[in-house]
Design brief:
about 425 residues, Rossmann fold, 3 domains, five-stranded parallel beta sheet, 15 strands, about 40% helix, about 20% strand, ATPase_AAA_core, Bact_Antivir_Def_Nuclease, ATP hydrolysis activity
C-alpha cells in the first residue's frame, strides 16, 4: 500500500493543497501552526475509509476516524468565524498492485460526509472475502503514532487488568481474526505493545510467528543495542535484552529508547498478526502506511541522524509519513523525501542532502544566523541602536538629552549581567558627555 498523491480542500488550515509522495519515507516540516499534525490526520482519515470497511470497524459518529468532523472544517475569521465548505480529501494510491482513487467529502454542516469511493470499498470487500476464505493474501499495515504515544494510557489498558475482560477479549471473534492487527491503529494516542504481550503470555498464546517477527525487527533496527523484548509476568512489565546479554525493565529505559523500542515492536506485532503466513519475515515483507508525529520525540541527536535509515531498513515495504523539527533528520534524507509546508514547491535534494546543520537550519528551516544564539543577536541590535542614538545626540536640546539618557539606560539594562558589554557601551556614552 502506497499513497501517491493527496489533495486537500478546506481541511483545517489547508485551503487547497496537492501533495505527491516518496514511496518509502516522507518527512514534513514547517513552522508551528502550519499544519503538520493536520497533514498526518488527513492521511489517517483518508486511509480510514478503506480500513474501516476492510476490518468492518464500527464507531459512533464522533469517534469515527473515517468521517470529516466539525473540527476538520477550515475556519476563516471575517466579522465572524465562517466555515468554508465543501471539505474534501482526494487520494491516489496503490494497494496490492492495484491502482485506486477515492475521496471523502463534506458538502454542508448537516450532511456529515459523502464518500465517492465505490472502487476502494469494493476492493476492501474483495480483500476481506479472501481473508475469510483463509487465503494467504497480504493485508496492508496501518498505524498512527502521535506525540502522546509514550505516556498515554489506552482506554483498553484498564480493561486488561480485569480478568473477565481479558477472557471476553480472548473469545471475541475479532481477537481470532487477522483484523485484530488493526486494533486502535488510527488512534494516535494509543500504545498497545504492553497489552499485546500481557494478553498472550497470560493465556499462554505466544504465537510462533508473532514473537520472532518482533525479535527480527528489533535485531535489524538495533535501538541502542536492545535486540529483544518480552513480558515478565512477575514484574508485570516488559523486559528488554541487549546484544551483550544484559536485561533491563522497559520502564527504566530513557524516554527516547522506550518510544523507539515500543514503536518498532508494535509495528512488527501488527505485521505478524495481519500476515501470519509471512512468519518471522512479516515485518520485512508487510506493506502499509505508518504515521509518526514528531519523529525526533525524546531522541538524542546521534539517533536523529540515523532513525530514518533504521526504519527504512527494518520495514522496507512500509511507507512512512513523519513530522519533525530536527535538522539532523532533515540532513539524513534523500531526494524527494522532504515536504516543507512553508514552501509550496518541492525542495531540491541538494538543499538538504549531506549539508551541514548550520546550512539546513538557515536555508531550509529559515532560522537566521543559527551559529549565534538569540541573546547575542539582540545584543548586537541593541548596540547598533545605542550607537545611532549617540550619533543623534549632537543636535539635541537639553530636554531631548535628558530623555535620551533615560532611553539609553533602559536599552542596556537587560544586559547588565554582561559586565564587559555593559561597561563598553557606558564608556562610549561618557566619552560623548552623556
Amino acid at each position: 500500500m502506497k499513497i501517491q498523491q493527496l489533495e486537500l480542500q478546506n481541511f483545517r488550515c489547508f485551503e487547497h493543497k496537492i501533495f505527491e509522495f516518496s514511496d518509502q519515507f516522507n518527512v514534513i516540516i514547517g513552522d508551528n501552526g502550519t499544519g503538520k499534525t493536520a497533514f498526518c490526520d488527513a492521511i489517517g482519515l483518508i486511509i480510514a475509509v478503506f480500513i474501516y470497511r476492510l476490518a468492518e470497524i464500527r464507531e459512533n459518529t464522533f469517534q469515527d476516524k473515517s468521517r470529516i468532523q466539525d473540527s476538520d472544517i477550515r475556519q476563516v475569521r471575517n466579522q465572524k468565524i465562517e466555515w468554508k465548505l465543501p471539505v474534501g480529501l482526494f487520494c491516489k494510491s496503490i494497494i496490492n498492485d492495484v491502482q485506486l482513487q477515492w475521496s471523502t467529502t463534506r458538502i454542508n454542516s448537516r450532511i456529515n460526509s459523502i464518500n465517492q469511493s465505490l472502487n476502494i470499498l469494493q476492493f476492501a470487500d474483495y480483500l476481506r472475502e479472501k481473508v475469510n476464505n483463509s487465503q494467504n493474501i497480504n493485508l496492508p499495515l496501518v498505524a498512527y503514532y502521535g506525540t502522546g504515544r509514550l505516556w498515554w494510557k489506552s482506554q483498553n489498558n484498564q480493561a486488561l487488568e480485569d480478568n473477565q475482560a481479558l477472557e471476553d477479549m480472548r473469545n471475541s471473534p475479532t481477537r481470532q481474526s487477522r483484523f485484530w492487527g488493526y486494533t486502535e491503529c488510527l488512534d494516535r494516542r494509543s500504545n498497545l505493545i504492553l497489552d499485546w504481550f500481557k494478553f498472550e503470555i497470560r493465556f499462554g498464546e505466544g504465537s510462533v510467528t508473532t514473537h520472532p517477527a518482533i525479535l527480527n525487527a528489533l535485531s535489524v533496527c538495533q535501538i541502542d543495542n536492545w535486540i529483544e523484548i518480552k513480558y515478565d509476568d512477575r514484574e508485570d512489565n516488559l523486559v528488554v535484552r541487549s546484544l551483550d546479554g544484559n536485561s533491563q525493565i522497559f520502564n527504566k529505559l530513557s524516554d527516547g529508547v522506550k518510544n523507539m523500542v515500543a514503536m518498532v515492536a508494535d509495528i512488527a506485532y501488527r505485521a505478524a498478526v495481519l500476515n501470519p503466513h509471512l512468519e518471522s519475515e512479516a515485518a520485512r515483507l508487510t506493506p502499509g502506511i505508518v504515521l509518526i508525529d514528531e519523529l525526533d520525540l525524546h531522541l538524542h541527536p546521534k539517533w536523529q541522524r540515523r532513525v530514518v535509515e533504521d526504519l527504512k531498513r527494518t520495514f522496507p515495504n512500509i511507507q512512512f509519513f513523519a513530522t519533525t523539527h530536527s535538522e539532523h533528520i532533515i540532513q539524513s534524507l534523500r531526494d524527494g523525501e522532504l515536504i516543507d509546508l512553508n514552501n509550496p514547491d518541492l525542495i531540491p535534494a541538494d538543499e538538504y542532502e549531506n549539508k551541514n546543520i548550520e546550512y539546513i537550519t538557515e536555508n531550509v528551516m529559515h532560522v537566521p544566523h543559527p551559529y549565534r544564539n538569540e541573546r547575542y543577536e539582540r545584543m548586537m541590535k541593541t548596540a547598533e541602536r545605542y550607537y545611532q542614538m549617540l550619533e543623534n545626540a549632537n543636535n539635541s536640546s537639553p530636554e531631548e538629552l535628558e530623555k535620551l539618557k533615560m532611553e539609553l539606560d533602559e536599552l542596556i539594562e537587560p544586559y547588565s549581567d554582561d559586565v564587559a558589554y555593559h561597561a563598553f557601551l557606558k564608556m562610549e556614552r561618557l566619552a560623548r558627555g552623556l
